[in-house]
């Protein structure tokens, strides 16, 4: 009996396209398929469109299950789909895309014959919002003239952007996927690989990129060089929100680093490409740490030199402070001397003033002693002698102050 394939459709607000998506699964040439659809809380009539196809799906598939729930995001929806699946292989398709009739059959044939591969995928053609086949120009604008097209399918665009030959052994290697996700849509996955990789996580918001990185650590991937899928390009494609895509991409890569750190390079189940990348990453990290260490040492030496310079400056300032203290003491002593001299000068001036007054009186009485006669003459002579003695005493004191 052919292995069971679980086709999983996470649907959200694609009322216009979801029936076309389901119809493309119904039209698959591969017979043994179960279809599981989980609607992530659509606000339009997507779930009603799914219900309308219930009878047809139950007739076509070995198992058909569909449900709706509150909006929880893509990661939660994917995990619920995988846990409900019973197939040996899983085929994931968005609710606005379509699969070519031979897609699942050809991909199952490859995985069944190549047990060392966990994923296989074909090329994608482009369709517009009206399901018309179209192409891309340089800026991913839709064109309908074959001659005006730059990219006739997804493969040449992804090959150019990733610089990977899709028909080479490098396709799907961990080392090449670390730079960007280039796996087209419409892939078939061996379900057992999830036992090694684990399921989706909200820590890695770019869920398709994250799961590709995990699969590439444990198994190979194969590209079939033929159109097996129709990728719808319309105004609501999430990939067109560039800022969010970049933020999600960086967060997913950072989380994958943590996952990679927990993988042992001696684990036999891990592919060499992942081990080599981890080893090279460790070498780069060591080199980066050594560079940072050298810079730290250089900064430390610079700090030591600055510290020595500051010590010398401090010593200079200290010596200068001591010199200033000595000068200050000298200035205080000089000020004290000047103050003492000032007091002396004041006293000297006071004596000089007194001398001037007494000397005038002396001259006055001396003159009177020559003018007057009798008792008055004797009085003035006596007064003149008294003031003369006082003048002599003042002269003596003045000479003493001068010598100070």
Description:
There is one protein chain. This protein has 404 residues and is α/β, with parallel strands linked by helices. It folds into two domains: 5-268, Spore Coat Polysaccharide Biosynthesis Protein SpsA, Chain A, CATH 3.90.550; 291-402. The chain has twelve helices and ten strands. The chain has helices at residues 18-26, 46-51, 54-60, 74-84, 103-113, 154-162, 174-177, 194-197, 207-218, 242-261, 272-371, 375-402, and strands at residues 5-11, 33-39, 63-68, 89-92, 98-99, 117-127, 133-136, 142-143, 188-190, 220-232. Strands 1, 2, 3, 4, 5, 6, 7, 8, 9 and 10 form a ten-stranded mixed sheet that branches. Strand 1, helix 1 (18-26) and strand 2 form a beta-alpha-beta unit. Helix 11 packs antiparallel against helix 12. The model has no long low-confidence stretch (mean pLDDT 87).
Ends apart, CA distance between termini: 134 Å
- SS-derived structural category: alpha/beta
Any idea of the CATH class of the largest domain?
Alpha Beta
What pattern of helices and strands is seen along the backbone? EHEHHEHEEHEEEHHEHHEHHH
Gross morphology is rod-shaped
Assembly type of the shown chains?
single chain
For the record, what is the CATH homologous superfamily label of the largest domain? Spore Coat Polysaccharide Biosynthesis Protein SpsA, Chain A
Q: How is the biggest beta sheet arranged?
A: 10 strands, mixed
Our count of helices gives: 12
Mean pLDDT: 87
User: In percent terms, what proportion of residues is strand?
Assistant: 5-15%
Radius of gyration, in angstroms, nearest whole number: 52 Å
Number of strands: 10
CATH fold-level name of the largest domain: Spore Coat Polysaccharide Biosynthesis Protein SpsA, Chain A
What percent of the residues sit in helical stretches (DSSP H or I)? 40-55%
Please mark out the parts with pLDDT under 50 across 5 or more consecutive residues, or reply none. none
Number of domains: 2
């Amino acid at each position: 009996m052919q292995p069971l394939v679980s086709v999983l459709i996470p649907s959200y607000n694609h009322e216009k396209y979801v029936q076309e998506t389901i119809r493309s699964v119904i039209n698959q040439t591969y017979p043994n398929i179960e279809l599981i659809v989980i609607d992530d809380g659509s606000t339009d009539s997507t779930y009603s469109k799914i219900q309308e196809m219930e009878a047809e799906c139950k007739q076509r598939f070995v198992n058909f299950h569909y449900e709706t729930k509150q909006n929880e995001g893509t990661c939660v929806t994917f995990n619920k789909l995988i846990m409900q699946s019973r197939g040996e292989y899983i085929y994931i398709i968005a609710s606005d895309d379509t699969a070519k009739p031979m897609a699942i059959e050809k991909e199952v044939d490859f995985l069944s014959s190549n047990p060392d591969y966990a994923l296989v995928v074909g090329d994608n053609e482009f369709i517009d919002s009206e399901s018309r086949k179209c192409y891309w120009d340089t800026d991913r604008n839709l064109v309908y003239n074959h001659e005006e097209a730059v990219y006739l399918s997804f493969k040449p665009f992804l090959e150019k952007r990733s610089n990977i030959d899709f028909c080479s052994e490098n396709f799907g290697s961990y080392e090449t996927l670390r730079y960007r996700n280039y796996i087209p849509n419409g892939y078939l996955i061996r379900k057992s690989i999830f036992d090694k990789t684990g399921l989706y996580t909200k820590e890695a918001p770019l869920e398709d990129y994250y799961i590709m990185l995990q699969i590439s650590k444990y198994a190979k991937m194969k590209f079939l060089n033929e159109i097996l899928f129709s990728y719808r390009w319309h105004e609501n494609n999430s990939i067109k929100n560039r800022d969010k895509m970049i933020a999600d991409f960086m967060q997913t890569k950072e989380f994958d680093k943590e996952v990679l750190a927990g993988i042992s390079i001696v684990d036999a189940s891990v592919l060499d490409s992942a081990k080599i990348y981890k080893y090279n990453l460790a070498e780069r990290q060591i080199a980066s740490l050594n560079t940072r260490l050298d810079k730290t040492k250089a900064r430390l030496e610079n700090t030591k030199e600055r510290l020595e310079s500051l010590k010398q400056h401090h010593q200079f300032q200290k010596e200068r402070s001591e010199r200033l203290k000595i000068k200050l003491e000298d200035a205080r002593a000089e000020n004290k001397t000047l103050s003492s001299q000032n007091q002396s000068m004041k006293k000297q001036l006071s004596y000089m003033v007194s001398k001037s007054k007494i000397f005038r009186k002396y001259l006055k009485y001396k003159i009177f002693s020559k003018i007057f006669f009798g008792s008055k003459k004797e009085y003035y002579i006596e007064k003149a002698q008294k003031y003369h003695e006082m003048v002599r005493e003042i002269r003596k004191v003045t000479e003493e102050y001068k010598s100070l």
